[in-house]
Amino acid sequence: MNAPAGTDAATRPRIARPVVTIYTDGACKGNPGPGGWGAWLSSAGHEKELFGGEASTTNNRMELTAVIEALASLKRSCDITLHTDSEYVRKGITEWIHGWKQRGWKTADKKPVKNAELWQRLEALAALHRVDWRWVKGHAGDPGNERADALANRGCAGR
Predict the structure, then answer these.
(1) CB atoms within 10 A of CB 103
(2) Residue 113's pLDDT is what?
(3) What residues are labeled active site?
(4) ω before 34 within 30° of 0 (cis)?
């Protein structure tokens, strides 16, 4: 079946992806212990705050959950600049995950990857978007990171 004239990929109007800025953070009172996660999303003058927590968890799980919940909240494919103060999250999704997958979700020393189910969910959600993963120094006065930290602590307080 032929497409109507003027509808090939080069001439079809392109729908712009929303541009979204996301800051995420996790918190844990004890590790393991009660934990919380927070995310602040901003796009075209609109903002969304998300937070939650778990009674017994780790800081790394909360860092991952913050990113997962932020990405899961988006209703369509977006261009995202995602700021995290977790090198575990940033390096995990941009560097380490490739080796883990090649080794069947094992680390270089053949141990099971911790939080593999969260990494797999994060990878699937990230694939729906174009994400620029950026590390930001935590507790250093970055307004977006401070806001995400406050949200994570709200999530932690409810535990």
Answers:
(1) 12
(2) 97
(3) 25-26, 63, 85, 139, 149
(4) no
